[in-house]
Amino acid sequence: MLMSTPRNHANAVKLTMLLAGVVLILMMAFGLVMRAAQGGLFELDPAFFYRLMTAHGAGMVGVAALTGAAVLWYFVSRYVDLIEGVYWAFLGLFLLGVVLILGSIFVGGYGGAWTFLFPLPAISGGAWEASAAVAFILGYISIGVGFLLFYLEVGRKIVAAYGGIGRALAWPLAFGGAQPDDAPPPTIVAAMATTVFNTIGIVVGATVLVSSLVNLLVPGFAVDALLAKNMIYFFGHVFINASIYMAVIAVYEIVPEYTGKPWKTTRPFALAWTAILLFVMAVYPHHLLQDTVMPAWALVMGQIVSYLSGIPLLVVTAFALCVYLRGSNIRWDLASALLVLGVAGWSVGSAPAIIDGMISVNKLMHNTQWVPGHFHIYLILGEVAMAFGFMAWLVKDARASEFTGIDRLGLGIYLLGGTGFTLMFLISGALSVPRRWAVHAEEWFLQDRIATGFGALVVLGALIFVALYAKGLSARRES
Ligand code: HEM
Ligand SMILES: [Cu+2]
Fold first, then answer.
1. Does position 302 have pLDDT exceeding 90, yes or no?
2. I need a labelling partner for 381 at 20 to 30 A (CA). Which of 210, 295, 402, 409 fits?
3. What are the backbone dihedrals phi and psi of residue 110, each rounded to the nearest 5 degrees, phi first?
């Protein structure tokens, strides 16, 4: 095993993180415009609101997945020999997809949301042409193909090096009485698990995408709407979760540098990752709790697995992190603070998610802003915080001092903004404010405006992080 990432892979990942940082800020600005428009701060044509919402949803999910994948590639390349060309093909297909999606939205007028629910892409009520929906779907397919190539390379190299999927998942340790010292490192276990479940998710997503594409081109070819919805939410749930499960590799690899205690694959760790592998796929029916035509057993399973899903997440990462931090003299800087924040935000965000996963609650809350409330917690304060932490760590050695005033300022602004912004979504949801409405009633303006203020802080914090990263990159080039 290599102790440091090969230079070529490191450079490709650094470039990816710079791109991702710029896209994050742009998409956050879109979100801010939406929130301000909901608060009646200015008039926004509703059709344009839905375009922004589609770009924000697809763009943010995409950038979360991209940063997660970059983290995975960076650290997995320390253990196995990955082909650099595959990464460039992945990035190229990703960017091609972005161009197609942006074109479909801002040139073609597509505004059917990132979930492209059948038959919405085809039946737009005249808001966009079928060709715009086709471009959107082709964009997704391009990104999907890129990810499949990525996982094929990661998967085959890990399987070859560790002797099979089961061994890479540390099953001999989990179920066979093998010794922890013989188990693969946490990075490999996490990379193998995400490779398996995200590949399955993307293949299911690609199937429903191609079906929707055929339906667009040959309207006589109808798709079963309930089946399509199941497939889309299976894909969507697995894909966004995979982004966080990939990003957490940064915590496993970087936090030990600060605590001096290596993160080890233990039996509970191995068991938890196997549980994650199964739960992440079994839990998706929690997105269909409103669909009364779904078989009752599937919905009940969605609820029960929702309860269970929180456990391995909290055990493997949040609880383990507390154990590692306790009694160690962790050195705080921007990177370690953001990584620890990421785990905390992810864990906290799982609570309102589990609440919404209860059938009785979901009946009331599902189409309210409670839903964007919970996922913005584990995205802004979870996945994206980990991505910013990873970026700060990448340029750490270019900095003279460890935890500067500007670092603390950025962190404080981001944390305050993120907490306030997501709390306002939850409060609005509890007050039954619907989600995905371009125009709000005046009674909701106050929450919307307070949220807009907090949202602006998030954008400002993110700007500071990305600027520090860009500065760090250029300082390294000069030295
Ligand atoms: C400054 C930061 C952000 C702001 C101001 C913001 C704002 C918004 C707003 C106003 C909505 C629509 C809410 C509604 O349904 O009424 C939304 C939806 C959404 N946001 Fe954000 N957001 C931010 C950051 C993020 C991040 C970091 C991610 C993911 C990494 C994200 C992912 C999403 C997704 C997936 C949706 C759902 C779109 C849909 O319903 O189709 N957002 N956001
Ligand atoms: Cu879900």
1. no
2. 402
3. -65, 135
Nearest atom, ligand 1, residue 53 CA: 38
Report the candidate in 299, 304, 343 with the shortest Cα–Cα distance to residue 323: 343
Residue-wise pLDDT for 339-395, tens only, equals 999 999 999 998 888 888 888 888 888 899 999 999 999 999 999 999 999 999 999
Burial of 63 (0-12, 13-18, 19+ CB in 10 A): buried
Instruction: Give the residue whose CA is nearest to atom 6 of ligand 1.
Output: 31
Q: How far is the CA of 284 from the centre of ligand 2 (A)?
A: 5
Q: Which residues, in sequence order, are bridge partners of residue 368?
A: 434
Pocket around ligand 1 at a 6 A CB cut-off: 28, 31-32, 34-35, 53, 56-57, 60-61, 64, 113-114, 369, 372, 376, 379-380, 384, 435-436, 455, 458-459
Q: Both ends of the chain: CA-CA distance in Å?
A: 28
Cα of 391 vs centre of ligand 2, distance in Å, is 27
* CA angle centred on 461, ends 459 and 464, rounded to 5°: 110
Main-chain dihedrals φ then ψ at residue 331, nearest 5 degrees: -90, 125
User: Can you tell me which residue has the tokens 């039946």?
Assistant: 123
**Which pLDDT tens digit goes with each residue over 399-451?**
777 889 999 999 999 999 999 999 999 999 999 999 999 999 999 999 999 99
The fold of 7-478 is Cytochrome C Oxidase; Chain A (1.20.210)
Domain boundaries, the chain: 7-478
Q: Whose CA is nearest to atom 38 of ligand 1?
A: 57
**Which ligand has the minimum distance to the alpha carbon of residue 428?**
1
